[in-house]
Amino acid sequence: MRTALVIGTGLIGTSAALALAARGVTVHLRDHDPGRARTAAALGAGTDAAPEGPVDLVLVAVPPALTAGTLAEALRAGLGRGYLDVASVKGGPRRELERTGLDLTAYIGTHPMAGKERSGPLAAGGDLFEGRPWVLTPTRETDTEVLNLALELVALCRAVPVVMDADAHDRAVALVSHTPQLVSSMVAARLEEADETAVRLCGQGIRDVTRIAASDPRMWVDILSANPGPVADVLAGVAADLDETVRALRALESGDDADRRAGASGVADVLRRGNAGRARVPGKHGAAPAAYETVAVLISDQPGELARIFADAGRAGVNVEDVRIEHATGQQAGLVQLMVEPAAAQALGEALRERGWSLRTG
């Protein structure tokens, strides 16, 4: 791949363009808002000048509702040798394209499983896809050369290719992406009119659950409108669990011992099933989830403190597998939780204490 045209310079399009440009591909940028394309170009994602002829790959990174129309225009104009999209749903756009009667042998649907709460070119980064799954949904009609171009794109973005059927993909993302967004938003909505005293008690648990609730509602309306059935199916299952859990909690309020035992059993059941489901979530680099030990370090809100912690961990020869930061309400301080292999936890704690860090135990 020597040349590419990225249509849509939001978070995903600009991030892909940055990764391609960094690896020597000449990238042309196009957006319905020329200002966004200029911003992406200024970030080093390519040029907003039109290509002189057909490019090797046309990457369409527009909202799902616009994906099929944008692809159809690009195909009719003969803008490239191969065409792909990065929409978060795959079945609908494919069927809409098929209804145009266009030759789709040069097209493949894809979806990088990466994103942020923020959108737009300024949120983009060339490392956004590194180590993340990138779904490819070829059909029997997909030209081998186009599949190879898509695989090259994934490799240049340092992602991990995953081949799936389009409708199976849509059912999967309904479970692992679209439903979590709605559930996160529903929990966060409970805080909108909550008493200020309750809000001040927010800790890491509520921050973890509501992190993605900060996402752009307009973007998510587009996504959910393109995949409503599978998301509704998953939510129906969640609703059934909620109903059972509410009944179990009401039973715990009962004065009857049998009711309380039944209630406790119901609550324990959903918690156990949650443990079992969480254990299936892949860990680092897609490997089986690992049980890490946490080294909790008190940190002041001063420039360079996080970098100093990681540098000190590196000097101790310990690899930090994951990190969480919990800010102290109303204070210029917080708690950094460093997740490491259990065998390395004691050595890291001792090394950090020697370097003057205050650790929280228990």
Can you walk me through this structure?
The chain is an alpha/beta fold and 362 residues long. It folds into three domains: 3-164, Rossmann fold (3-Layer(aba) Sandwich); 171-278, 6-phosphogluconate dehydrogenase C-terminal fold, CATH 1.10.3660.10; 293-360, Alpha-Beta Plaits (2-Layer Sandwich). The protein is built from 13 helices and eleven strands. A seven-stranded mixed β-sheet has the order 2-1-3-4-5-6-7, sandwiched between helices. A four-stranded antiparallel β-sheet has the order 9-10-8-11, covered by helices on one side. Strand 1, helix 1 and strand 2 form a beta-alpha-beta unit. Helix 3 (64-77) packs parallel to helix 4 and helix 10 (228-252) runs antiparallel to helix 11. It is globular, with a radius of gyration of 24 Å.
Helix residue percentage:
40-55%
Listing every helix as H and every strand as E from the N terminus to the C terminus, the arrangement reads EHEHEHEHEEHEHHHHHHEHEEHE
Beta-strand percentage?
A: 15-25%
How many β-strand runs?
11
Number of domain units: 3
- Global structural class: alpha/beta
Q: Catalogue the unreliable spans.
A: none
Q: What is the CATH class name of the largest domain?
A: Alpha Beta
Report the C-alpha radius of gyration, rounded: 24 Å
Integer average pLDDT? 90
Signal peptide: 1-21
GO molecular function, one term: prephenate dehydrogenase (NAD+) activity
InterPro entries: 6-PGluconate_DH-like_C_sf, ACT-like_dom_sf, ACT_dom, NAD(P)-bd_dom_sf, PDH_C, PDH_N, Preph/Arog_dehydrog, Prephen_DH
EC number: 1.3.1.12
